[in-house]
Amino acid sequence: MFNDLSTPLSLLQTRRSGKPRDMVAPGPSPQQLREMVAIAARTPDHGKLAPWRFVIVPDAARPALVERLIEIQRTEKPDCTVRDEEATAQFVTQAPALVVVLSAPVHGHKIPLWEQELSAGAACMNLLHAAHACGFVGGWLTGWAAYSDKVRDLFGEAPQRIVGFVFIGTPGRDLEERPRGELSEIVHQWNPGYGPDR
Q1: How far apart are CA 135 and CA 4, in angstroms?
Q2: Helix, coil or strand: residue 44
Q3: Which residues 6+ apart lie within 8 Å of 117 measured at CB?
Q4: pTM of the shown model
Q5: pLDDT in tens, 7-34
Q6: What pLDDT digit, counting tens, does each position of 75-124 carry?
């Protein structure tokens, strides 16, 4: 069972993102979505800088976002095809809810930029946890649009950067497990001889 809500620990142990293209209604209500974002903002934040922003894209605004993204796609990718444009339209309109998360670092602050960017990533993760805890499923995607300054400008401004497009809804099909790293490969116990020649 994935995203088991019986206990907080079981939810973490069984956490599984959903594929946005497989998500169906119902999605979260506007109030539920705001509650999820409030939970996402309760993330580690050295310096109390809130170096992230959340942009909720209402369902009624999705067609306009499709148009803007395709305009940008045509400008930045002159060789894009009709199929590419259709893929962009599908990307924007999949799943019942969409939240764009941005990294909004405070440059020149004593808190290192890297720590602020890590906090933005943690905010995305918290948003997924919030979605799953509310009985929905979330999926965090990037793609070409996440790395386009022109797309970023639709949601924020420089030096902000898009961390991800977080889609939220109800799974339209059973979730499937994905490969996970073996603990023997990703966890090590430090000892005084630990180093590049271990």
Answers
A1: 9
A2: coil
A3: 51, 103, 105
A4: 0.95
A5: 999 999 999 999 999 999 999 999 999 9
A6: 999 999 999 999 999 999 999 999 999 999 999 999 999 999 999 999 99
Residue pair 5/134 in contact by the 8 Å Cβ criterion: no
Task: Report angle CA 37, 20, 132 to the nearest 5 degrees.
Answer: 45
CB 136 within 8 A of CB 28: yes
Extract the tokens encoding 63: 């067609």
Distance CA 89, CA 79 (A): 17
Q: Output the six-digit token pair for 193.
A: 């001889």
The count of other CB atoms within 10 Å of the CB of residue 43 is 19
User: Exposed (0-12), middle (13-18) or buried (19+): which is 18, by Cβ within 10 Å?
Assistant: buried
> Which long-range CB contacts under 8 A does 75-82 form with residues at least 24 apart?
75/150, 76/144, 76/148, 76/150, 77/144
